[in-house]
């Protein structure tokens, strides 16, 4: 199997994982994606020209899939950001509920100078 075919197969796996990433827990999916990306990176480093017509066609498909991978990674990152924001919001809400007078603000004081 050529390096281009290996890269094609790894890219195909990445695309399918990013299209439906929630079959497993998110941490497992992220770990698998990282592993595939590292393996794909190593395979890409080992590719050398000249390429046959079939390999060139596989390369074109890999380039098309790269945009899908970028979109999927962006969606995954945004989902993680939303989760982090909701967790931090829940923490502050719970803190305010358990101790409602802790965050009272004393904006200023007024002294009456008249005697």
UniProtKB/TrEMBL annotation:
Its main location: cytoplasm. It is found in: Cytoplasm, Cytosol. Belongs to the bacillales FliT family. It holds the Pfam family FliT. The keyword Chaperone applies. InterPro entries: FliT. Keywords: Bacterial flagellum biogenesis, Cell projection, Chaperone, Cilium, Cytoplasm, Flagellum. May act as an export chaperone for the filament capping protein FliD. This is Flagellar protein FliT.
